Amino acid sequence: MVNYPIDTPVSGGTVDSRPMLAWIFVDESYTELYHTYFDTFISEYFESGYFENLIASYVEQDPTKFCTYEEFETGVDTLKSFCLLRAESIRGQESIYK
């Protein structure tokens, strides 16, 4: 999933079979806006480190949590690695279209 294509983001069908998605790729201005949103999301949430701290304090204090805080941190580290690799892949795919 790290290198899943951003301009054909469907499984079990085609972009054309998904009307709400297809209109993004029919018009170049919409496709550019789609890439801009990807760029903003990556820079503001992943590359900035913001997503790492969204729920950590809540998990640490939750008396009903289903894993230890250390296990949660391991999961966060794994998710962070995946997301940064995915962001790198998306950045590379965006550069193809610029």
In words, what does this structure look like?
By secondary structure, the chain is mainly alpha-helical. The protein has one domain (15-97). Helix content is 64%, strand content 0%. The chain is built from 4 helices and no strands. Helix 1 crosses helix 2 (28-47) and helix 2 (28-47) runs antiparallel to helix 4. The radius of gyration is 17 Å and the shape is elongated. The mean pLDDT is 86.
Short description:
This protein has helices at residues 19-26, 28-47, 56-61, 69-97.
Number of domains: 1
What is the radius of gyration? 17 Å
Portion of residues in beta strands equals: under 5%
Largest sheet: none
Structural class: mainly alpha
Tally the helices: 4
Mean pLDDT: 86
Distance between the termini: 23 Å
Q: Would you list the SSEs in sequence order as H and E? A: HHHH
Number of β-strand runs: 0
Shape: elongated
| Low-pLDDT ranges | none
Helix content: 55-70%
